[in-house]
Amino acid sequence: MAHVTSFRRRVRIRVEGVVQGVGYRPFVYAQATELRLAGHVGNDTRGVFVEIEGDPAAVDTLVARLSTHAPPLARVDRVTTHDLPPDGESSFTIVASSAPGERGVLIAPDAATCADCRRELADPADRRHGYPFINCTNCGPRFTIVISTPYDRPRTTMAGFALCPACGGEYADPADRRFHAQPVCCPACGPHLALLDGSGRPLAGDPLAAAAGRLKQGGIVAIKGLGGYHLAVDAGNDDAVSRLRDRKHREERPFALMVADLPAVSALAEVSATEAALLTDVARPIVLLRRRAGAALAASIAPQSPELGVMLPYTPLHVLLCDAVRTPLVMTSGNVSDEPIAYRDDDALRRLAGLADAFLVSDRPIHTRVDDSVARVVGGRPVLLRRSRGYVPRPVTVPWAFPRHVLACGSELKNTFCVGKGNNAFVSHHIGDLENYETLQAYTDGISLFADLFDIRPEVIAHDLHPEYLSTKYALEVPGDLVGVQHHHAHIVSCLADNGVDGPVIGVAFDGLGWGLDDTLWGGEFLVATRQSFERAAHLATVPMPGGAAAVRQPWRMAAAHLQAAYGLDIPDLAVATRQGRRWADVLQLAAAGVNAPLTSSMGRLFDAVAALVGVRDAVTFEGQAAIELERLVEPAETGSYPVDVTDGVPRQVQGADLIRGVVRDLAAGVEAPVVAARFHNAVASLVVDVCARVRADYGINVVALSGGVFQNVVLLQQCMAGLSAAGFEVLTHSDVPPNDGGISLGQAVVAAARS
Ligand code: ZN
Ligand code: ZN
Ligand code: FE
Fold first, then answer.
1. How many other CB atoms sit within 10 Å of the CB of residue 97?
2. Residue 98 has pLDDT above 70, yes or no
3. 473 Cα–ligand 3 center, Å
């Protein structure tokens, strides 16, 4: 044997990343046997280990393939090799793990039904033909069904379903596509559907066909999905969609659609190659697309919006349902207005009782409520606006290791939290606005789950500086070293982390509101920032926010404040003042007296003010609505602008007064609203370039990071990127993490690590 082994090579390989529960060991097994290599593969706490022995060229080939190939749901972060003396092993085996899927390894996100499963689903000869819970190692539920670790069937919501002999055989066979797929099941041993009427009584007949029948007749059906309940109606039926809108008390926010396939999406909206790739990604986010004129859809789906939010089916149930109804479906979250989405059956039946005509339910429990993710393509690059189902809990890998375990508690609105360990920042699913008991419960449950899944015992607790945020109050109760992180600093550092770029940068953080260091509310900020610290280099000059929170709901109050800042007591006669009548004068008086009128430098509130002046709307039903509508108005061909005065000092002050006077002069002269909206956007983009150029002259920094909710405005974002690039700046924007407050927790975690 000595003669033979001298021509053999043996290597130990370690593979790290998302490599468990995704069919990685069978993949290695198949590659190794194809190359006639001996050895073994197994899971341990760090990922997958492989030992291979055989022909040196074949060994090299396998090592190379592990770096370039992987099963669809795997994400390989690192492959390292180490030479060993050959020991004459003659076959290749998958070795049992000491504890399958041990703590500390990465759990995969939920994944859309794969092509193989879809083929079986449609094949009358397959034993899972038409079975709405078909899945395999390459697809199916993951994060939404995990209860605790190690990740193994007894610790998922599939625990109550004992494998039948046929499924058990597939589960145990290394050559099978269902080897160690924890949620594997079939009609004989897995979950089943039921259709219930509006009061929860079972209805006769095939549940799926009956649900499809009701949808075609204009019924509203609550459908249990992967991470919670949707409310579905036929998107072509205006009566049905209007009825759903009434019942949900959701006046104007657009409804998302589920459409069978790409050609059907193309019939409704324009789809670029990048958008098609995003729609068909295994994460299956809702993608915001430009709607086609004349798309055959109910008018009430997205009133006044040139966009549609569309997703493709991502569970076998959705595939079967879309096949059965053959029309686009509204698939909106199963809740009433701002409540969290229902995901437990009893809760759904109670809360959605007045909304749904029927319930399509199943006996597979959802452990964690996870909302649909939302994305769009800007300048050829995907940007996540809500990072949740399909993406979570995949970590954001950062180039700076966390020296101690960190818990970052996140923001108040669009909350996510983040736990940091090693080079991984685990940003949570979208928790929502921390304003009610259910959401707070989801928040604390989520933190416990993440601590368990990733074996994290936080020593450093990062939080926002706003004393009234529930996330701040939570942080103060948790044992650990507290690190307060300023809101806009967190925005900018989340953008650095999203790009893996180290500071210092010029951070432009534009959003609604965030607690500042001087007890005013910031939101129009230019920060010279590193991961550790920042200086406030410039900001929008402050104005009062008359009535505090009321000024967020009623943009006309911000118009009053900005007009007073621009004109003093001689405010010109404007429609917005006339419409508001007596309230207008009262509000200005209170603001002048400083009564309930916190000072703010917010850019989001300046957008609100201009939207109210232009006549877009005086009041909003959701945050950012006025600004979104102002953006839609923009006349793209208009190149005019308004002057903006920047006063020197530390920090510099960006005066909005000239800009406001320009808007008023135009409106008085009868200039059309789309032109005024365009000139306003042009003015903001050019002030960004102007201020960044001054800061560059002071600090010698040539990199600009754009973050904050205002940069969800695509017109503004693209103008800023173009203007800054033309001025020679390198520009960083968001991609994997939202620019809005959903990204705050990541920034907090990275800042806390840098400081501790
Ligand atoms: Zn599959
Ligand atoms: Zn079975
Ligand atoms: Fe913010």
1. 18
2. no
3. 18
Q: Which residues, listed in sequence order, are joined to residue 14 by a DSSP beta bridge?
A: 49, 80
The arrangement of strands across the sheet holding 460-464 comes to 418-427, 396-408, 460-464, 481-485
Q: For the ranges 320-324, 619-623, 653-657, which has the lowest average pLDDT? A: 619-623
pLDDT at 102 over 70: no
Question: 317 is written with which tokens?
Answer: 């149930």
Dihedral (Cα; 123, 125, 126, 129), 10-degree rounding? 60
What is the per-residue pLDDT for 294?
Answer: 86
Say whether pLDDT at 433 is over 60: yes
Cα of 543 to ligand 3 centre, how many Å?
18
Mean pLDDT of 78-99: 84
Closest ligand to Cα 410: 3
Give the number of other Cβ atoms within 10 Å of residue 465's Cβ. 17
Distances (CA, A) of 316 to 64, 429, 538: 35, 22, 52
CA atoms of 746 and 395, how far apart (whole Å): 10
Closest ligand by atom to 189 CA: 2
SS3 annotation, 671-730: CCHHHHHHHHHHHHHHHHHHHHHHHHHHHCCCEEEEECHHHHCHHHHHHHHHHHHHCCCE
User: Which ligand has the minimum distance to the alpha carbon of residue 523?
Assistant: 3
CA distance 353 to 609: 40
Q: How confident is the model at residue 579 (pLDDT cuts 50, 70, 90)?
A: confident
Flag the least confident range among 107-116, 407-416, 587-596.
587-596
Enumerate the β-bridge partners of residue 322: none
Query: ∠709-714-717 over CA atoms, to 5°?
Result: 75
Give the confidence band of 1 by pLDDT, cuts at 50, 70, 90: very low
Q: Which residue, among 251, 254, 257, has the nearest Cα to 269 in the 3D structure? A: 257
Report residue 143 as tokens: 């994060």
Residue 52 has pLDDT above 80, yes or no: yes
- How remote is the CA of residue 168 from the centroid of ligand 2, in Å? 7
Residue 99: the pLDDT is 53
d(CA 506, CA 695): 8
The predicted pLDDT at position 23 comes to 83
With H, G, I as helix, E, B as strand and everything else as coil, classify residue 8: coil
Q: pLDDT-based confidence at 684, cuts 50/70/90?
A: very high
Q: Is the previous residue joined to 546 through a cis bond, with omega within 30 degrees of 0? A: no
How far does residue 135's CA lie from ligand 1's centre (Å)? 4
State how far the Cα of 654 lies from the Cα of 412, in Å rounded to an integer.
Answer: 27
Helix, strand and coil percent figures for the chain, each rounded to 5:
35, 25, 40
Residue 251: predicted pLDDT:
67
Written in H, E and C, the secondary structure of 342-393 is CCCHHHHHHHCCCCCCEEEEECCCCCCCCCCCEEEEECCEEEEEECCCCCCC
Ligand nearest to the CA of 71: 1
For 619, left (φ over 0), alpha (ψ -120 to 50), or beta? beta
Q: What is the distance in A from the centroid of ligand 2 to the CA of 164?
A: 4
| Residues by chain with Cβ below 5 Å of ion ligand 3 | 511, 514, 741
When pLDDT is averaged across residues 584-610 and rounded to a whole number, the result is 91
pLDDT band at 45 (very low <50, low <70, confident <90, very high): confident
- Give residues with Cβ within 8 angstroms of 556, minimum separation 6: 576, 579, 580, 584, 612, 618, 619
Residues surrounding ion ligand 2 at CB below 5 Å? 164, 167, 186, 188-189
Per-residue model confidence (pLDDT) at position 576: 85
